[in-house]
User: Fold this.
Amino acid sequence: AVQMHEVGHNLNLAHSGGKDGKTYTDHTCLMGNPLWEDNVGGMCFNPVKNFQIAKGGSWYDEKHIKYFNNNNGRSWRGRLVGAAEYDKITDNDLFVLKLETGKEADWFVGFNRAVGPNSDSKEADDQVTVYKVQDGDGEGYSHSFLKASLSEGQRARITDWRQTGTDLFVKVHDINTSDVPGWADVEIMFGEETPVTPSPTKMANPSPTSPNTPAPTKQVTPGPTKQPFSIQITPIPTRSPRTPAPTKQPTRRACPWWCVWCGSTC
Assistant:
């Protein structure tokens, strides 16, 4: 592994950092230097380094590399095969997916198939892996970093893709390690998935049932109670006390001032 790491430098490959941002902590790749032994070395380079090797015109055929940006569609879906089984890849399969940002720091997606020459992988075995290169479009000497490792049913989000304000998603639909070569079914989506409104069913709403709506009963439904439950009724005034009726004997009225001398009662 140590010798292959140094051979990688001779191929102009830079180091591979991990999710923690440190220099050597990508343990899916020999350039992360996870194996400190001379007699253990069953590990491949990561998709960023394999892309760089392919662009150099050796080892890999570029027809198995896919370039994606939101200018050539809002989504893409296909199968990725690991570098460990590249010798068994079919014409319709890919082994590197490059997500182009429009700048030099592009993203890469691959399938870390942990078998054969990659059986000593120390991280993300049989998972879909997502990387970002520091600069140079991945075509020259540049540090790469592992950003995500995804199992079946998981997805990764790249925020504000190409400064559009919309996120890009890497979604893993299926992983198959029973077939040879093993593969991962991956989808790239620009923006969230739009739920599809189901089309109406062919069968129309059922016609009314044969029995007609029953006629009203002979007994009339009783009217509302005097005090409906949802309304507060102001209490009716009580009948008593009543205003007293006038007495039979009229109340005397006062005499005028001019008759006080007469001595009579008015």
